[in-house]
Design goal:
The chain is of the alpha/beta class. Strands 2, 3, 4, 7, 8, 9, 10 and 11 form an eight-stranded mixed beta sheet that branches. It has a three-stranded mixed beta sheet with strand order 1-5-6, with no helix packed on it. The protein has eleven helices and eleven strands.
């Protein structure tokens, strides 16, 4: 066997870039945090009982550190365990690397502290060819997508995953990708975004309410009336795709970093939502 053939047999891995920063690097600590969130949900938040049986085709989740946004993300990603999905496609904005368009990960596996997930290479090849997507490896040291992976591994441990990171992208083009994904009932879509950044709590609540109302009403017009979500392109694409695919939205949770820190002078907003069949 030649050296090049041996290299081709080596599995490439999308390494965890922010474990120990945005979320724990210890499996036990991750499990403890998620168990804590679920205990709150199951014991104290009776008003959430109606949503905990939803079977979403897609969700919107935040991507802050778990101490700030993990509870909000957990509600949405836990719902994936109600489904029989075989693959999860995670879509988030690039924070570190400028991208003209969208990058799709071509690694073989996705490492997490809880164990690896296989990347769905056939779907990657299909999407890359069908939608002219690139692979920019340096774009995949991205926390907006990575922080979702331990939740996915916990609640849907046997799925394969696909990671899409976008930069300067058309919401309409990204919506076409999401619509195509939603045509397959075995696929769930995860859209990653935080809301407003570093306003005082009153201003943040005001701006974030625009985002929440836009998602609730599937209104792309309202999204542009002051919503300052860092992943607004992905959210707009999801709203467009939801309307085309006949899905309705259910708001799951909203809070700010002040809920964890107590500091209301400069907060970040977080929300989660599920998109379910009518």
């Amino acid at each position: 066997m030649s050296q090049s053939d041996r290299r081709s047999l080596v599995m490439s891995t999308r390494e965890a870039a922010v474990a120990g920063q945005f979320y724990p690097s210890s499996p036990d600590e991750i499990h403890a945090m998620l168990e804590h969130y679920n205990q709150i949900l199951d014991t104290h938040l009776k008003e959430k009982e109606g949503v905990l049986h939803l079977k979403p085709r897609a969700v919107i989740v935040p991507h802050g550190g778990y101490v700030y946004s993990g509870f909000t993300a957990n509600i949405a990603l836990r719902l994936l365990s109600n489904t029989d999905v075989k693959r999860v496609v995670i879509i988030g904005p690039s924070h570190r690397v400028y991208l003209n368009g969208t990058s799709i990960s071509e690694f073989d596996t996705y490492h997490t502290p809880l164990g690896a997930l296989l990347i769905d290479k056939p779907l990657v090849s299909d999407l890359k060819e069908r939608f002219a997507l690139a692979f920019v490896p340096e774009a995949h040291h991205e926390h907006s997508t990575e922080v979702q992976i331990p939740f996915v591994k916990t609640y849907t441990p046997d799925v394969s995953v696909v990671e899409l990171v976008y930069g300067d992208e058309s919401p309409g083009k990204l919506a076409e990708v999401i619509e195509y994904l939603l045509d397959d009932p075995d696929t769930a879509v995860v859209i990653s975004t935080d809301l407003s950044h570093y306003y005082d709590i009153k201003k943040a609540n005001s701006l974030d309410s625009i985002c929440l109302e836009a998602v609730k009403e599937l209104s792309t017009a309202e999204l542009h009336e002051g919503c300052e979500a860092c992943g607004k392109i992905g959210v707009e694409a999801m709203l467009l795709a939801a309307k085309k695919s006949g899905l309705r939205s259910v708001l799951l949770d909203y809070r700010t970093s002040a809920d964890a820190s107590g500091d209301e002078s400069q907060v970040v907003g977080y929300m989660s939502a599920a998109f379910v069949e009518q």
